[in-house]
Amino acid sequence: MGQGNSQFTEAELEDYQHLTYFTKKEILYAHKRFKELAPERVSHNRNAKLPMSKLLTMPELRANPFGDRDFLDMMSAFSDAAPKSVKAEYAFRIFDFDGDDYLGREDLVKTIERLIHPQRFKEDDLNVLINRIYEEADLDDDGMLAFAEFEHVISKSPDFSK
Ligand SMILES: [Ca+2]
Ligand SMILES: [Ca+2]
């Protein structure tokens, strides 16, 4: 019994939004694309697993938003089944593009630019968003997020509290 557009509750959407910085619209769009690949499976179970070969037919994945960052692994780490520590570690590793074990400004810029189409996001907005992330998460004020800081900030998300 889908009520129109969504197999997600508002609260779930909020969580995903918080976790990924996708907008609700983008989350619903991603799920819609997912569903189009295998409507017979996904419409009954929104956590349906699809074979890799099928997923790779998605133009979005062929364009490969995270390049070598193993986008599919990341998505599965965000699934409900993954324990909280795994989710946090995966996300941290993926967002740490230069591999120095901190999320610096460059890492966040790259992360956000890959999650959001840059042409829909003005540079000023990007800076504001990054400043807000640091304000909330950079507890020791060194301009970088260590794993502990990152884990702390995402643990506030209800999706991580299990
Ligand atoms: Ca880094
Ligand atoms: Ca810090």
Query: How large is the radius of gyration?
Result: 16 Å
What's the overall geometry?
globular
For the secondary structure, the number of strands is: 0
Uncertain regions: pLDDT < 50 for 5+ in a row?
none
Query: The CATH topology of the largest domain, please?
Result: Recoverin, domain 1
**Helix-strand pattern, N to C?**
HHHHHHHHHH
**Count, helices:** 10
How many domains make up the coordinates?
A: 2
Taking the alpha carbons of the first and last residues, their distance comes to: 27 Å
Q: What is the CATH homologous superfamily assignment of the largest domain?
A: EF-hand
Q: What percent of residues adopt helix (DSSP H or I)?
A: 55-70%
Proportion of residues in extended strands? under 5%
Class derived from helix and strand content? mainly alpha
- CATH architecture of the largest domain, by name, is Orthogonal Bundle
- CATH class of the largest domain reads Mainly Alpha
Overall pLDDT level: 73
Present as ligands are: calcium ion
User: Major beta sheet, specifics?
Assistant: none
GO molecular function, one term: calcium ion binding
Pfam family, one: EF-hand_7
Protein name: Calcium and integrin-binding protein 1
GO biological process, one term: integrin-mediated signaling pathway
